[in-house]
């Protein structure tokens, strides 16, 4: 991974000159949307407003029976492992999302993890602004909208981003002191849970439990502490644009406010917060290496209409060692046969990063690019 190259890369502007100037002015204030919200504004800047056609289906049809993503209880992982493997396989294949409970992390730890990120975002502007920068790979970055300069319209959230895996991992002293201990502790605990889920996903494909760990699919972890402050015009923007995650697997801890939605079939499903629950979702990379057995699906976050900021902590699991002399990846050979030929081609590390850094958040551009 060429950290220096990708840390400062920007794609050609996709906004008009006037909008780009407004975006630049906002970015240079280093106040984020939390600062805008706290200032008492009653209307949002124009570059946050999304096209009307993308906002038509923000709220599920009240006449339809509400759906929910699968919830999987891991308490019987040793006594009834086969059942849980099957549940994980079905959820990853049919939904691309599921919640896990009884995963071994206490509610008090979940609460303190969320509170530490809330405390960071609640700090005065002059303290937070010391961390404000745009360095998407490596170390620590606080910013509003990671892809601010690559998006057609901005989204109503700020993020603290911390790299927790090699080769670009943050030094402990770089992490803001107000949440340092909690973030370091969370990464350790989240990795334990994540490794367990990776085993279940691997076994669901008929592979050895340790196959994904052997392939380093969970070694590079990027932690994001999102803040979705109150938005005065929540029907004109979104918290995070509809997208799929490009990496391997994501573990999400959300607070009680809610707002996450997952695409299922032709509609959107609200993901209701569950006490003690962690949300798992399949990334584009896992869809490719599983040769389409597991599905990455669109998800988004609504703009927050609650006076209390919504907080979430997201851990992205990615590989650290690309294989082969050309640093490539594609469907795992063990999953291919005459009856199940590859539906994706191999791609290189360079192609993967070029695809990510050439645009804002989007849906399955990686999948579409490498589909045979």
What Rg do the Cα atoms give?
20 Å
| Biggest beta-sheet profile | 8 strands, mixed
**In terms of structural class, how would the helical and strand content be classed?**
alpha+beta
Number of helices: 11
The CA-CA distance between the termini, in Å, is 26 Å
Mean pLDDT: 92
What is this structure, in a nutshell?
The protein has 372 residues and is of the alpha+beta class. The chain is built from eleven helices and 14 strands.
Give a structural overview:
The chain has 372 residues and is α+β, with helices and mostly antiparallel strands. 29% of the residues lie in helices and 19% in strands. The chain is built from 11 helices and 14 strands. An 8-stranded mixed β-sheet has the order 1-2-10-7-12-5-4-3. Strands 6-11-8-9 form a 4-stranded antiparallel β-sheet, with no helix packed on it. The protein has a two-stranded antiparallel ribbon with strand order 13-14. The relative contact order is 0.16. The model is unreliable at 1-13 (pLDDT under 50).
Give me some keywords for this one:
372 residues; alpha+beta; four-stranded antiparallel beta sheet; globular; disordered N terminus
Blueprint (SSEs and pairs):
Elements: H1 3-7, H2 17-29, H3 32-38, E1 71-73, H4 81-94, E2 97-101, H5 107-121, H6 125-128, E3 140-144, E4 158-163, H7 180-204, H8 211-214, E5 220-228, E6 238-243, E7 249-254, E8 260-264, E9 267-270, E10 278-282, H9 284-289, E11 299-302, E12 310-318, E13 328-329, E14 347-348, H10 349-356, H11 365-370
Parallel strand pairs: 1-2
Antiparallel strand pairs: 2-10, 3-4, 4-5, 5-12, 6-11, 7-10, 7-12, 8-9, 8-11, 13-14
């Amino acid at each position: 991974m060429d950290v220096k190259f990708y840390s400062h890369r920007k794609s050609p502007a996709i906004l008009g000159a006037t909008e780009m100037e407004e975006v630049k002015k906002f970015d240079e204030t280093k106040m984020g949307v939390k600062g805008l919200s706290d200032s008492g504004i009653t209307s949002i800047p124009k570059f946050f407003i999304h096209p009307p056609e993308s906002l038509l289906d923000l709220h599920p049809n009240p006449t339809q029976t509400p759906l929910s993503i699968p919830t999987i209880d891991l308490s019987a992982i040793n006594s009834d492992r086969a059942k849980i493997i099957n549940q994980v396989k079905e959820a990853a294949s049919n939904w691309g999302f599921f919640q896990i409970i009884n995963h071994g992390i206490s509610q008090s730890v979940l609460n303190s993890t969320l509170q530490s990120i809330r405390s960071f975002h609640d700090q005065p502007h002059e303290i937070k602004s010391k961390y404000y920068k745009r360095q998407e790979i490596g170390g620590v970055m606080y910013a509003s909208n990671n892809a601010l300069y690559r998006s057609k319209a901005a989204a109503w959230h700020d993020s603290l981003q911390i790299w927790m895996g090699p080769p670009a991992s943050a030094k402990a002293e770089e992490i803001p002191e107000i949440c340092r201990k909690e973030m370091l502790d969370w990464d350790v605990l989240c990795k334990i849970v994540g490794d367990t889920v990776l085993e279940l996903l691997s076994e669901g494909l008929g592979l050895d439990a340790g196959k994904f760990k052997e392939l380093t699919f969970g070694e590079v972890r990027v932690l994001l502490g999102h803040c979705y402050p109150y938005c005065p015009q929540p029907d004109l923007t979104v918290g995070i644009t509809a997208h799929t995650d490009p990496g391997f697997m994501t573990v999400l801890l959300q607070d009680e406010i809610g707002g996450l939605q997952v695409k299922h079939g032709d509609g959107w499903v609200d993901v209701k917060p569950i006490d003690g629950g962690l949300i798992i979702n399949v990334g584009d990379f896992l869809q490719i290496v599983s040769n389409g057995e597991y599905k990455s699906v669109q998800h988004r976050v609504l703009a927050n209409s609650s006076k209390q900021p919504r907080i979430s902590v997201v851990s992205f699991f990615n590989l650290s060692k690309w294989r082969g002399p050309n640093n490539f990846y594609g469907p795992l050979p063990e999953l291919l046969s005459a009856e199940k030929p590859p539906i994706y081609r191999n791609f290189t590390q360079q192609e993967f990063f070029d695809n990510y850094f050439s645009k804002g958040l989007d849906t399955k551009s990686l999948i579409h690019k490498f589909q045979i």
